[in-house]
Sequence to fold (121 residues):
Amino acid sequence: MSLTIDSLGALLVVLLVSWLWLNTLRARELALAQARRACQRADVQLLDQAVALRGMALVWTPRGVRLRRRYRFEFSSDGVERRTGQLALLGLRLESLWLEPDDTNPDGGPDDGAARGRFEP
Fold:
């Protein structure tokens, strides 16, 4: 059996797609773990126990080309009202994390600032 350029190219494409798929699954697991951790720190509940991929882009860094993935998730402080969180992974490292502030609690209290703004890794 001899490998032709066409079959070698097809094999390379299959391997590249397989690697991307497995890497994306790993990144999703890491994103979900980061979302859970952020919700625990902010004393809110992660809803649906899921993150949704919102976008991917190639980014040049000092360490070379990396894949940036943006994820979205929902959380609640009272179990009823849904708020949005977002996070970005650069490669497999957390780049940024944001939780939507609670605008319904202007007088302060347990939620005052607990789930606001950006958390750095």
